Amino acid sequence: MTNHHSLGDASTRFAFLKAWTLFSKSCGDELSLTPPIYDRLLDVPKAYENRLKQTRLESFYETPSCDGPSDRVRATFVLARAHINRLKKQVLTQLKSVEYVSSFTVTCGYIWSCMVKSFVKMGELKGEDELEQFIFSVNCRSRLDPPLPASYFGNCAAPCVLTIKNVVLTGENGFVIATKLIGEGLSKLVNNKEGILKDAERWYDDFKLPARKIGVSGTPKFDFYDIDFGWGKPIKYEVVSLYSMGTISIGASKESAGQGLEIGVCFPSMQMEAFANIFNHGLEISFSSLPLSLLTPPHPPTTTEPSTSTTTDLDTAPPLDHCPYPTPLTSIVAKSLTYLQISFDPPFSLRPQPPATTTDPQPLHLLFCLPTPRRACIVADLMLEKKELDVGFIDLFPDLGFEISTRFNGGVGVVVTVDKFWWHYSFRVVSSKTVAVRQRGFLRLDLSHDGFLEQWRCLDLSHGVTEERETEKKRDGEVVFPYSTRKPEIRHVEGDSVALTFIECTLDFNDLTRNHPRKCENFHSLVPSLGNGVKVSEYVTLPVFSVQVTYFPNSGISIGMTNHHSLGDASTRFGFLKAWTSVYDSGGDHAFLTSGSLPVFDRLVDIPKVFEDRLNQTKLENFYQPRTFLGPSDRVRATFVLTRTHINGLKKHVLTKLPSLEYVSSFTVTCGYIWSCMVKSFVKMGEKKGEDELEQFIIAVGCRPRLNPPLPASYFGNCSAPCIVTIKKVVLSGENGFVIAAKLIGEGISKMVNNKEGILKDAARWHDDFKIPARKIGVSGTPKFDFYDIDFGWGKPIKNEVVSIDYSGSVSISACKESAQDLEIGVSFESMQMEVFAKIFNDGLEKCTLDFNDLTGNHPRKCEYFYPLVPPLGSTVKESDYVTLPLFSVQVTYFPNSGISIGMTNHHSLGDANTRFGFLKAWTSVYVSGGDQSFLTNGSPPVYDRFVDIPKLDEIRLKETRLEGFYQPPSLVGPTDRVRATFVLARTHINGLKKHVLTQLPSLEYVSSFTVTCGYLWSCIVKSLVKVGEKKGEDELEQFVIAVDCRSRLDPPLPTTYFGNCSAPCVVSIKHGVLIGESGFVIAAKLIGEGINKMVNNKEGILKDAEKWHDGLKNPARKMSVSGTPKLNFYDTDFGWGKPIKYECVSIDYTGSVAINASEESTQDLEIAMCYPSMQMEAFAKIFNDGLESAIVS
After folding, report:
1. Residues 199, 381, 395, 791: which is the catalytic one?
2. Which CATH class is domain 376-623?
3. CA torsion sign, 142 to 148 to 151 to 157?
4. Architecture label for domain 2-49+76-227+234-339
5. Catalytic residue among 281, 564, 565, 653
6. Where is this region: Disordered (predicted)?
7. Is 565 one of the annotated active-site residues of the chain?
8. Is the pTM of this model over 0.90?
9. Which CATH architecture has domain 635-853?
10. Beta strands 211-217 and 247-252: pairing type?
């Protein structure tokens, strides 16, 4: 719907829709409706009469339009009730004395500050004193004296204009100050004791201030999602006029029955990404997908938080008018879209349909039980009220006695120590790595806070709470590094324990467990720290392991583990978890102890001397300080899934480029692909590095089975060797960077694991490569260990994260939750780089794993997707006195379970479209008949004779040909922004175009389907260039080139089976200004027809003016040409498998041509294929389709 704002405001539009739906449902019956009130009995303030006198009519009746295409996108953000309450709480925490805080004021303040910050993020420079204004309109109906009824039909709103300095709004407290100003302004306007019209004459003074103005359209008071014509309620409501008004829309949310708000915004695409980051960062949630496209984020749980204020809420917030510039004077036009999801059987019926009933899936209720390792120190950091302490634990080991001691800190902390611990060890380690590995798994549970606590058996703590006392200092198992031997040991003595911390968290569980980009800092509190090392006179002790369980009320838990890398590698961590679950699942450790898979702690391998030397060089002060997380920051983490289809596509891509490569695995192509995508993202972000600067990729190779003698798989410790691959950055970021990276990684791993002298042969040189000055990217984890198969009995984890990649510069690779055949890739970047990485990653996968159905559609598809499907011609050979040029090649591409494509490339000197079509027909004939006998005897073999006299000019041109240029055919280059699309001209369209031409030029002699098609396309193409901003003088020339078949027009004529290139160029020229004018298409069709007619009907033969054919091509004009012809129906070729479903001329991507061929559906219709940058394609499509509608209507 579109209405001039003087007709009515949001209240009027909503009432109109409600009345319309009632009429629709009643099928015209009498209704009991409150009729609208049209009376205008109000005294208009003098200021309004003066403004009306000043109105310029010529601007008044020119309403703004939604011009397009542009780079602007629109998106909807959802503020759930929990978000709104959190924003209120933040305001009231900082401004305890503020009087007016409502859902509306905090929403407006928050969005206003986010919007202005997004401008700054995009590089906008504004002075500190420059102003920002926020404008919304307040419904005046009930606030007039006397009040107007709610059914008043018209625009009855007052503007509330708030002004603030840019530097204040973009500051740390900008949102809070903005909320305060909006609340004060609104309160002052509606609570004016002298009436809302008291200051009406000054309402517009603030509009004159030189400030950027942002307004609000819509109001949450009117629920447009409650509109129902009988087909069901709307699934989406949009205020389209945001595009031209510079406003935001605020409305009731569809999902939350008025408890939440939908925020509609419209920005250029890059700014939308910046806004989304700022908006979600402030709410501590993230958007649902990147780069990828900007969609409405998933709705967080709608559990209502307790209100932090008794001030005005949604149900009593002052109603807002749709437009920030009210009164009949303004030329605002309100445009809105309401989408309804309906399905009618033909014929289309508008009879009301009963709404469909759906049954939402019920949540799975699981009991939560925490398996406790024996001899565990459990710190229950519960947010308990200061009352009688009530903390309980399940007794997992009833046969054990408990030593209970307590330590209190304000009544919120309890430490319980269990008497025994099964994990006994004392052994040497060979690694001095100082990395702390942090890992976390999420489990989904549906338990309240009290329900969670009740799953623990209460222990009688009464004897321990009578007095506060410090517990005895307990030690974890720890690394002991003696100064004398400098050979570290992992030591456990009686009394040691492993710290197990329990906390409660209010972060969004659903958000944390998805794959989309999420703030890194939100994860850091979910993994425990290792604690500090202790340095004494003879040795240093280092904590090696800690566990943390985090409870998310009514959602689930996460189990976070941190271990010093000297304790164990991925195999050890996985073995520990499997053992833990086994002990818990069986109710004790007997089954585990008798399973035959106990961890092996023996250290029987001879350590190469180089490791002892390295240990002697270790600086203790660095050794015992594990790295910690820094926050807050702009870093986000995301998970990308490589499906088996993707992996096979990557393998195929590598083997296509390097068919002789010996070592290609899922892991090597995955690592190579991620590495190249990461480095390309650095380049895309503007990183400046020299071409010779190096990049390194580091993989930890498991050594257990590769030692002599081999170690068992249950060996407990760190037993891995570094495989380091080095490559120049310029190579890795190049077009074939991924392929070369996969090759080098495969060769590096193969060389290491297949070393005949053993994997330790080159151990002395393992760390030499670390000294090379290069950026190092490593891999954490391995897909061999499926952490999603861990089950304590509550169900398997729903998400596994390696948190330490946030500081280690690594990526994580692990088996996927959905399928062990797929891989999950975890990465951590700053938010802008994550968007760049996501685009590079996804675009590359699309190229390697092409979608057969997508490729065979007519919609715009990336041009580069087609390049791997057509073969190159091969290399030319230059001898001393001649050059040989390859002429023809064929490629068949198989798409598993979908189909095949046949790609052909030929040098144009070999043959034209007629020759290619003849070749395909001959090939199919030979194939279908099982041999060439039928083809050879049917009387239509190709004719190769060259009997035509070549005009003198052609001989001269051949002598002028430069061989070095001639034998280098153009190549398909990608990636680019170019897309290709197919448009279908039905017979109805073609007849409409013909009629349009003949209506304007009734005496025109030569009008054919081909000439009107070419003329129409030519004019649309040039107009699309103008639409995207091309500047050309009106007198500059445009040229259109058509290849005319000469076979039947020579004297004597050549047979249709002549094999070769036999065509003549018809070149038509026209001024740019004429072609883009109103009659451009008609004039173009006329000129093309006259040009073809003149050439083919030349009484002296088609070769008469051959010497002038190329003169026209020398003209400095833009040239557009036609490839293909509708006379040859390529959809009629059949090898016996069925006819083709799509035909594409791929070479138009670099020739600047359009392809015109017979349509698949009907030979009466035409298929038009073209290739342009995506923005131009959108412009062309609109011009093309709009013109066809006009031609048919006329």
Report:
1. 791
2. alpha beta
3. negative
4. 2-Layer Sandwich (3.30)
5. 565
6. 296-319
7. yes
8. no
9. 2-Layer Sandwich (3.30)
10. parallel
